[in-house]
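Hey, resending since the last one bounced:
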Amino acid sequence: MYVQAAEITLYAPAARTLKDKRQILRSLIDQVRHQFNAAIAEVDAQDLCQRIVVGVACVSSTAGHARQQLEAVVRFIEENAAADILDVAYD
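The structure tokens again:
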């Protein structure tokens, strides 16, 4: 079993309140879970309106496949999220 993880930092300029941020985050989490069956959760900056930090993990029988899944998740977030990716830190 192989596990690949990443911490993704996003900037949501449209989020003026924590409620706005939660709506963006909930949509992102639901889409990633549905599309990739990956584990995703907010891991930092919970009290900041425009910064979103999520952790994403993928499990597979091969290391290469797990990494490919994780990279696909990052591309999906980059193309579909209502926020801009600032940083991606792979574990």
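Residues 7 and 33 are 16 Å apart (CA to CA).

Sorry for the duplicate.
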